[in-house]
């Protein structure tokens, strides 16, 4: 299992539209092959969002990114951000 964190700096005044976009699109990612979990966190004071996901593998997540790039969903999501998100892949430690 891989944990994927995307830290996203949001454009000011986009929270309502972004939340509707996420509401309309999260079911697709949650049902995509290889996705185990997706949770969304907001820090409205800092105008940022954390997308916290669990995937079977990095490749499964990258396959999803390719899918949403092709169908333009990624471009729409990025339109809510000041800059591209910071993406982190974590492997669980046996500690």
From TrEMBL:
<dbReference type="GO" id="GO:0004497">
    <property type="term" value="F:monooxygenase activity"/>
</dbReference>
<keyword id="KW-0560">Oxidoreductase</keyword>
<keyword id="KW-0503">Monooxygenase</keyword>
<dbReference type="InterPro" id="IPR007138">
    <property type="entry name" value="ABM_dom"/>
</dbReference>
<dbReference type="InterPro" id="IPR011008">
    <property type="entry name" value="Dimeric_a/b-barrel"/>
</dbReference>
<dbReference type="Pfam" id="PF03992">
    <property type="entry name" value="ABM"/>
</dbReference>
<feature type="domain" description="ABM">
    <location>
        <begin position="1"/>
        <end position="64"/>
    </location>
</feature>
<protein>
    <submittedName>
        <fullName>Antibiotic biosynthesis monooxygenase</fullName>
    </submittedName>
</protein>
